[in-house]
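Anyone opening a protein record will find just a pair of labelled lines. A complete record is shown below as an example.
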Amino acid sequence: MSGPATTLSGTAAPHVPVLLAEVIAGLAISSGEIHVDGTFGAGGYTRAILESGAARVFAFDRDPDAIREGEEIAASSGGRLTLVPERFSRMRQALAGYQVEAVDGVTLDIGVSSMQLDRPERGFSFQGDGPLDMRMAQDGESAADFLNNAAEEDIADVIYRYGEEPKSRRIARAIVAARPAERTGQLAEIVRKALGWHQGMKKDPATRTFQAIRIYLNEELQELEDGLEAAEQVLMEGGRLAVVTFHSLEDRLVKRFLKERSGDLPAGSRHLPVQASTAAAPTFENVAKPVRAGEIELKNNPRARSATLRVARRTGAASWNSKRGMPA
């Protein structure tokens, strides 16, 4: 994310992902291993994994642009990179199609990718004006569809729940009054006006609203929860899980999952009640404290300021059945 990198073929890559060295160190890659990059994006983590040793990588992304633009990396990988146009929550099913039952590492970089943020035509950011889209997979309901058709109460609930915005009802009321909303710049101005923002204020209040709508449309928190369970199922004993998050909603979910699966919390999740009794053995052990970007990286890449890396190692215990909090 912070600047150009070099691909296996020698061409310039658009971004270096955050906490790259720390992620690679946490994965402890050895020759001949099989790794999953669940969030391929511009391919930064995948390139680093490939270059760290003779590892094979299955790279997942639901964004067709990412898969298409990753073909050059795959072509130069000597057959070690397989691009998978699929959600990372379906990694177990997809890997089975390649006769792969277990892997040595899973990497997840949660949220929107830099290549999506930096392209106004994708509609993820208000830094450049573009259509209100925000769809990672480029299909289904767009941000404009949602904002122009949903009830005011539903819009307010999404902004409050996924953006942690205390003034969500005021924003929703302003959005409905200004319909139709079609452009990112238009939505940003609606939010700013509703909250009385002006140039010079420290943080643009539109940030939370854009985050909330994006998370809702792409079902990002459910995808993360399902993806963590999928990683638990495909990682072999001793396999490493590295997850980079960028805001509190994601990090709390990952933190709780790892605490639960390491035996520090009773079984349960954001969607399920705590079970009365749990006999499931811990499936993960934390191998390091959470890691955040250092001063040098923050200077080169401001997007790293909210990033948190958590790394855990898979035990030999059977995977849990999340619906019951018991081994599958």
About this structure: The radius of gyration is 20 Å.
